[in-house]
UniProtKB/TrEMBL annotation:
Keywords: Amino-acid biosynthesis, Cysteine biosynthesis, Pyridoxal phosphate, Transferase. The lineage of its organism: Bacteria, Pseudomonadati, Pseudomonadota, Gammaproteobacteria, Pseudomonadales. Residues 9-285 form the Tryptophan synthase beta chain-like PALP domain. It catalyses: O-acetyl-L-serine + hydrogen sulfide = L-cysteine + acetate. This is Cysteine synthase. Its EC number is 2.5.1.47. Pathway: Amino-acid biosynthesis; L-cysteine biosynthesis; L-cysteine from L-serine: step 2/2. Pfam families: PALP. GO terms for biological process: cysteine biosynthetic process from serine. Its cofactor is pyridoxal 5'-phosphate. Belongs to the cysteine synthase/cystathionine beta-synthase family. Pyridoxal 5'-phosphate binds at N75, G178, T179, T180, G181, T182, S259.
Length: 300
């Protein structure tokens, strides 16, 4: 009998769900974290990255050897670089030049080619350049912002996992919003199981800079976003997100990025409003992606 060993692609998903122990304080609520940094390329974006490539292949839109192009602020780029390496694609990633050194290094480690745009051009400029390159025939844009295969990965994976891991007791789901793929897919699944589940999205306050999440201008709002799937949107300040991020590492042993700190900060706010709730927040990635910024160097 030949043993069937998993491939690296088989290790995406089925991430742990763990309970916060100290940060919530005295409460009747259960606060849970979905640890997406446990995916092989280190973030929640592993799920849609593989989904977008695999499903495009099944539709005959791409085939191994083709060139793929994507605008990214970091995690999606790393995940796509990994997925392209698994599947045999050339990957061109376009990103703002103020992205962390760790993210750039991880992308090139997987063999991706990087094109940098200025901080002023930002993600909007990166998205515009990707579209121009596709129009010039230089590759195929997967377009995480408009690609239904992005939320589908969470509808078929992340959502069912959370429902199963909480045994259907979840009352609140909290997620940062970037492309909005995670919150769209998970909301759709959870509300099909129980329409009463409250879905809470996180966006940065005006002027805040929280990696991975955006307050999109209307003309750049992701096309996959459906406002009716989000019950409440929380504006998060940078200082609060960073403070909770550091507290997660020092008081809970959970090492994550700023957007995850913001999601937990929002969950802690909500916990003060309700009783006997079961809340789940997405921990998008790991904190080692941010060490070069000095963000963890602040005093206790």
């Amino acid at each position: 009998m030949t043993l069937q060993y998993p491939t690296i692609a088989d290790c995406i998903g089925n991430t742990p769900l763990v309970r916060l122990q100290r940060l919530p304080g005295a409460t009747s609520n259960t606060l849970l974290l979905k640890l997406e940094g446990n995916n092989p390329a280190g973030s929640v974006k592993d799920r849609p990255a593989l989904s977008m490539i695999t499903r495009a292949e099944l539709r005959g839109q791409i085939q191994p050897g083709d060139t793929l192009i994507e605008a990214t602020s970091g995690n999606t780029g790393i995940a796509l670089a990994m997925a392209a390496a698994i599947k045999g694609y050339r990957m061109i990633l376009i990103m703002p030049d103020n992205s962390t050194a760790e993210r750039k290094a991880a992308m090139t480690a997987y063999g991706a080619e990087l094109i940098l745009v200025s901080r002023e051009e930002g993600m909007e400029g990166a998205r515009d350049l990707a579209e121009r390159m596709q129009a010039e025939g230089r590759g195929k844009v997967l377009d995480q912002f408009a690609n239904g295969d992005n939320p589908e990965a969470h509808y078929t994976g992340t959502g069912p996992e959370i429902w199963r891991q909480t045994q259907g007791t979840i009352t609140h789901f909290v997620s940062s919003m970037g492309t909005t793929g995670t919150i769209m897919g998970v909301s759709r699944y959870l509300k099909e199981q129980n329409p009463g589940v409250q879905v809470v999205g996180l966006q940065p306050m005006e002027g805040a800079s929280i990696p991975g999440i955006r307050r999109w201008p209307h003309e750049y709002l992701p096309r996959i976003f459906q406002s009716e799937r989000v019950d409440r949107i929380v504006d998060m300040g940078q200082e609060e997100a960073e403070d909770v991020m550091r507290r997660l590492a020092r008081e809970e042993g959970v090492f994550c990025g700023v957007s995850s700190g913001g999601a937990v900060a929002a969950m802690l706010r909500l916990s003060r409003e309700v009783e006997n709730a079961v809340m789940v927040a997405i921990i998008c990635d790991r904190g080692d992606r941010y060490l070069s910024t000095g963000i963890y160097d602040s005093p206790n």
